[in-house]
Amino acid sequence: MIQKYVFGTPFETEAVTASLPAASGMPSYGSVNLETGFCYTLTMDEDTIVYGLGEANRGLNKRGYCYISNCTDDPDHTEDKRSLYGAHNFIIVAGKQSFGLFVDYPSKLTFDIGYTRMDTLTIRCDNADLYLYVIDGGSPYEITRQFRKLIGRSYIPPKFAFGFGQSRWGYTTKEDFRKVAAGYREHHIPIDMIYVDIDYMQDYKDFTVNEENFQNFPEFVQEMKNQEIRLIPIIDAGVKAEPGYPVYEEGVANNYFCKRADGSDFVAAVWPGDTHFPDMLNPDARAWFGSHYRFLTDQGIEGFWNDMNEPAIFYTKEGLEEAGELMKRYLAGQNNNGSDETPGSSVTIDQVQRFLHELANRPADYASFYHQVNGQMVRHDKVHNLFGYHMTRAAGEAFEQIDPEKRFLMFSRSSYIGMHRYGGIWTGENKSWWSHILLNLKMLPSLNMCGFLYTGADLGGFGADTTRDLLLRWLALGVFTPLMRNHAALGTRNQECYQFEHIEDFRHVIQVRYRLIPYLYSEYMKAALQDDLYAKPLAFVYPEDSMACQVEDQVMIGNEIMIAPVYTQNARGRYVYLPERMKFIKFMPDGTLSEKLLESGHHYVEIALNEVPLFIRDRKCIPLAAPAEHVAALDTEHMELIGFSDAEYELYEDDGVHKDYENPSNWRTLRS
Ligand code: GLC
User: Residue 336: its pLDDT value, please?
Assistant: First the structure.
């Protein structure tokens, strides 16, 4: 059952698609206090688990820390961080009585989950203007599925998007891309996509292509397609403020950019220098921004990634001026008597340092520009968490116009629940750290709970130098993430799979992905079409097993398999917990399978760097295709079934291009 409580005058985020009447009274679980803003409190039993929060730090069980929904461009995902790029305000309290809470509130919201007091959950925000949805009845898994029905069907990408993609910030010329394509094709490492980062644009201007480096771009797009590789360009949120640039001129002329209080267009510096932010919350501006994607789809492009849409601000003129003032006052103090602090100048060196450090993404800047919503000016910080969502919505709505029958690849960095209907997400700027493999794994089910099924991390790590073993281990997890992309930052060590010794190991791991695509795609589609989870915590499948409920480093993928990746350097295997009897399969580097029946309980399993492990649940089987070098070449007519004999598998398969999802001929039963 779902109850919708209305507090004050909520902003319509359009996260929820189902219409529900407002409930009277107060929620039956926990208590709400409206004295200062909104404050929800619940006392938790010692063994209560809290799931959810989508793209958030720390564990699958969110207990023991404080998380702040406040979409933030922060490249250092260390354990202490409270805000990442997304705001996914859904949690499931799994205790004696389980229930879910979705706080539909577009500004900063704090989830203190046993941080201030270990037994207390507190959800707090400044304004008591929100919808609170309380979902109960059944298990945490059933509650999650009810929630998923409430927010509408998750985004479905084209099938090619289940292939492998290579990316790097720094590919600048056609030659750079040709080298990558050749690196993969010549070594027979499967690939379907090469991502095109900001350098393809003219001076980082959205919806332009650098003419010097990419003369006759459509021909180049086709040249890549002839090798069965799609180019996937990036689109940034900020539009360069440059007279004469048509996107800028149109935005200014039609008042499509976010404004300052005085009505002038707000200016923030991002990659192109000074930019304006399109007012993604204004439907006209959104339709206009979206219509520009056509510039690239007309040239043969079939997918995009939306970036910097928290929106990220490197600095504003106002911020710089304040910093200048602060420094002047500090220096004046220094000149007076050489001390840090003098009468008349209370500015200390650490204040200056902190200010400079916080020049980017300053709360004061977010509070200084406005959106136009239904004729009202809405201050950005009040709706901050919706920007990335509505940028991706702009694209999604535009694709419906451009070609209503066709699926486009689309994923975003920033997001809010609701955006899951328009695109997937990648989890932003991680690092080449072992701990980030585990973070990637833990986020998967949490993201699925919030509707984001098409997700993945920068495999190998974005920031910092990767190592061969880290990349291989991470790829072995990436085999199972719907978005499987290797991406790295400018200036880091080359990270393409062919840059390392024993390229055959990389070929093998990525081949395993392709062999599993019929299963992974089928399970993805089931999850999307049935408002289900593609990746589940063990606890959702084995709720009676108290041991399974504590497992944080193994995940169920679809309904047939469990994964337990290795995420420790120099480890030759790992411990794994099996809630039931399973078949332990290793894809061996020579193309064969090693199979072993393991009884339920704890096991140590050996997994070499070039092996890909998975566990098939008791009495289940999965289809396995022969290796292929790109998705379209997969032969799904002649597949073997692996796992247990006398089992059945319900395969979903469609053309992967169009939206004929409900056609019964998409289903077929395979028997082992
Ligand atoms: C941001 C993105 C990163 C991209 C870079 C350059 O940092 O997170 O993925 O490579 O911008 O566009």
Answer: 74
